[in-house]
Amino acid sequence: MKQTPAQKEAELRKLNQRIDKVRKTVNEDVQKRDKLSGQLRDAELGVQSARKELDEIRAQRLAVEARVRELEAEQLRREQELDGERAELAGELRTAYVNGREEQLKLLLNQEDPSNFGRMLAYYGYFGRARADRIRGIQDQLEHLALVREKIVAEKTRIETLEQQRERRVADLKSSQDKRAQAVRAIDQQIKARGGELKQLQSQAKTVERLIVELRKAIERSQQAQPARRGGSTGTVAQQAPFEPLRGKLPWPVQDGKVIARFGQSRAGGSMRWQGMLIGTDRGARVRAPYAGRVVYGDWLPGMGLMLVIDHGGGYMSLYGHNEELFRKVGESVVAGDVIGSVGDSGGHSQPALYFEVRRGRTPVDPQTWLTRK
Fold first, then answer.
1. What's the pLDDT tens digit per position in 164-214?
2. Rounded Cα–Cα distance for residues 142 and 205 (Å)
3. Of 76, 140, 185, 306, which is most buried by a Cβ count within 10 Å?
4. In 195-278, which ranges are continuous DSSP H helix?
5. Hey, what domains does the chain have and what are their CATH numbers?
6. 44: Cβ contacts below 8 Å, ≥ 6 apart
């Protein structure tokens, strides 16, 4: 049975509510278990918020500056047109002055042919009306020019306001970055004091595992609640090519990245292994979805920082951690190549890098085997 748009919307809303409940539960557990992680979370979310506002202000300022340039070009054009109108009017007035102020009376006293006199009188009427029209045109140009100048002043005032907002947001960003640095130092000191880097990593890994399990449950419950469709398809992601055949064909989520840690590599000198890969690249580098899907998680997580999870259907998910900013929200669909975040060091990481992981069901698989560089 085919679903109506309203039914699909209701289904998506229920799934998003389940996912939001998972997110809140995980966040509450983090706050209860680790005060320092909570402080780091608040600081890094503050950094993201300040950066987003800075980006918005920058975009607004660019738009306003472009508008000012347009208005200034219009002002120049209007002034040139006004100069032309004035020059033409001056020429007509000079001609009228040379002919004398009583042109029509002179014609009458010359006692020329009445028909010729009538034509000349009509011509003078045309010239008089043309001069009046030109004067009105000049007045209109002056009024429009004054309006353009007012708009330029208003837009420049807007730029000044945006600049003040930008300065405040820069201060907010620096404050959040300072708080983040303090939280990272405190966490490092705690780890050294307890000799517990491995324990810290294990705790963070458990949080990720629990999140994946709960997300998978939410998605499966949503699929079970859907009416059966022809062909038995019940995925939450729009119809697309299966994920499995794309092994070794997907683009990298970041360009020009260098692999810092590979899947299965040892972590912290212990028995823990990397369940994904860590790709080092420039801060702020754009993170792109290698394949289509739907965002099922986008929030801060211990050890991962700002993390986004995409459900690709067919039991496959991809994870993106340590972002500086997330550009997509839960429930949004993405296609291959869409920008979903920017590379950072959130989660207390020591350098800008993207953590990339692929899950088949609840099991992590080597993500590099899915990628190809063109």
1. 887 777 788 778 777 777 777 776 676 665 556 667 777 778 888 888 888
2. 71
3. 306
4. 197-225
5. 5-33+196-370 (2.70.70.10)
6. 176, 180, 300, 305, 306, 346, 347
